[in-house]
Amino acid sequence: MKRIIALALIAALCGFGGTAEAAKMWDDMSWWGNTGATPEPTMDTKGRSGYWWWPKEPASNADDGELWGNRGIVYHTPWEKPVVEPPAPPAPPETPAPKVERTAVVLNNVLFDFDKTNLKPEGKVEVDKLVAEMKKFGKDSVVIVGHTDSVGTDAYNQGLGQRRADTVANYMKAAGIDGGRIATKSMGESDPAVPNDSRANRALNRRAIFNITVVN
After folding, report:
1. Is 180 helix (H, G, I), strand (E, B) or coil?
2. Contact 161/148 with Cβ under 8 angstroms?
3. What is the pLDDT of residue 67?
4. CATH code of the domain made up of 110-213
5. Can you give the pLDDT at residue 100?
6. Pair 38, 29: CB distance under 8 Å
7. Cα–Cα distance for residue pair 112/184, rounded to 1 Å
């Protein structure tokens, strides 16, 4: 009857250490033949504190007729299967914050007295709001449009509307807004807000308005 000396015992007698580590490096077991062997040991059932490295079941055939290597025993301190940390799940793609479309500040029209171009206190309040907004958002720009009522000739009112727009623009420049961001134009009396059929309505048409371009 064949007797196969335990692999680890042979290594120990020959002065080699780390038998379990050496055995674990033998990942390809195909050359052993059809033994059902695996690279991982199992605990010896006979209470000898050893581990069978091959085969899957730590037991001998009745006639000890196994293929060579089928009964190698690794006598070692209790073996623990190395813990293989699972790969970390991929980080979820970052969801960009939704872009908020900014809209232009809402301003009241700047109103002027009859045949006047100077800014009144309530008009300065509106222009100051725009100045603050344009200082906050340095790419915004504005077109200031001057208007008049219907009193006077078309040519005169065209010039009056332009002077009103220029008055507002100069106020903004003095407040620190780059003149390259400000444009002016006059509509004269051609685009009234309300019909020029009463004194109250004509007062509403003597105005400057703001066409603001917002850059998000």
Report:
1. helix
2. yes
3. 41
4. 3.30.1330.60
5. 79
6. yes
7. 16
Q: Are strands 207-213 and 141-147 parallel, antiparallel or unpaired?
A: antiparallel
Q: How many CB atoms lie within 10 A of CB 26?
A: 14
Cα–Cα distance list, 179 to 5, 15, 123, 151 (Å): 98, 92, 20, 31
The pTM of this model reads 0.57
**Closest by Cα among 98, 100, 122 to 111:** 122
Q: Are strands 73-75 and 141-147 parallel, antiparallel or unpaired?
A: unpaired
Can you give the residue ranges of every domain in the chain? 1-81, 110-213
Per-residue model confidence (pLDDT) at position 163: 98
- Strand ranges inside the chain, DSSP E: 42-43, 50-52, 73-75, 110-111, 141-147, 182-188, 207-213
The distance between the two most distant Cα atoms of the chain, rounded to a whole number of Å, is 131
Contacts 24+ apart (CB under 8 A), 166-169: 166/117, 167/117, 167/118, 167/119, 167/208, 168/110, 168/119, 168/123, 168/127, 168/144, 168/208, 169/144
pLDDT profile of the chain (216 residues), mean per 10: 38 40 45 48 56 51 47 51 82 85 92 97 96 95 98 97 98 97 97 96 97 93
What's the pLDDT score for residue 81? 63
